[in-house]
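ingest -> fold -> write
write: protein_1
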Amino acid sequence: MKKSFRGGIELIISIGVGVLLALAGVAVKYFKWYFLIAGYNMASKKDKEKVDIEALGRFMGNMLFLAAALIIASSILHYYQYKILSMVMIFLMVAVIFYMAIKAQAYSYGTQKEKRTNKLIIIGALIPGVIIMLITLIPGAMTNEAVLEETFLRVSGMSGNTFAYESMEEIKLIEELPRANKVVGYNFGNINKGTFTVEGLGRGYLYQHSGKSPFLFIKLAGDRNFVIINYRDSEKTQQLYKGLKERVKN
């Protein structure tokens, strides 16, 4: 895919976030700006006395450096279309957050019971977020089947839709998919489904299951613009193209 101006802006913003995290790490670890540590800054004086703040500051600083590196790496990988590796960085970020939240309890002088209770509270707070993330990712990873009905093409699954044969102005296979930006839908790795703005084509429907060509391109009449479909099995994409060409004579 080609890179767009918008993609460059997103990269700059993401790298900026990473740099801010790194600067926060420097502030906490080397300048002892402990008020930047969430939870500690709101704790009572009595509770603060139970914390080995210098050790905690060093630990939190190192974790912020790691988080910054992961965000910057993920942003660069995503910009250059290595989306799977980019998502790996994101999952590592989640792991770092879990580790940071739990390990931080080791720098408290509280009793083992207090530490254990705090860990359970932290885990309980983080687990719903992970569950929500999985609920979002799993349905989107399922294949959208394209079914040739009598008068229309039906795309099932997440962000599915129907497209009348009579509205199809052009049907062809293309070898390269231009850069696409999600408007509404799902975007994970090389899986893109929903409404996207595709460079050079405008806004339309994308059901991409793989980064491999070919891609089935369908030009639509009116403001719906186009539909692009492909599958991990290129033969399946080609069979859909042949079946659709038989249904639509233009």
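write: protein_2
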Amino acid sequence: MTTLTQSEIKSSPSSPVHRTARFNRAEFVRNALIYLIIVIAAVAFMIPILWLVLSSIKTDAEFAAYPIRVFPRIAMWSNYAEAIDKLDFIQSAWNTFLLALIYTVLNVISCAFSGYGFARHTAPGRNLLFTLMLSTMMVPAVVMVIPQFVLYTRIGLVGTILPWVLWGMAGNPFQIFLFKQFFAGFPKELEDAAEVDGCTPLRTFFQIFLPNAGPVIAASAIFSFQW
């Protein structure tokens, strides 16, 4: 029988040490390629933002010049002060933030209630109603802009915050779907235990389901606010 020395075992190409080294090198190359792709994608997404900033500090002549000049000769930071002064930017930004906040809060509350109802309560026609609600996602939002504007004009709501309140209270089909799928994952025993302790469905929602729905609430709030 041939006895292998310790040095021969270490130098064998098929030894665990060599296999681990090859695996580490392959993993390093794979991770490097992934990060390279991510960096390239990030730079590609940053180019429009960089172009926007550079264009904002150009003079009118430089902005309209051809061939296009990437960097301005002199950075006109006074453009920002002029825009803020002439366009009443602070007030406009505050109005936008306030309307977005009102819509976000109402929409998250409405979608959470609707998703909870679809997920945890049974009623005749529930599945049909849920299907009809999801089918509205196939209608592009821009198709409804003009009809809604005409409707709000006729009932005198244009120029008020009430349309945003109505939009928020109506909910969003996609976000209702998110809440429904999230709440459906809770074990039935948790709800039964709350019922045994005397919790009403509303109290169960606020004290058990809603406090544990942080991730889906955050996602819904982000979608609502940026819309």
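write: annotation protein_2
The radius of gyration is 29 Å.
The mean pLDDT is 85.
pipeline exit 0
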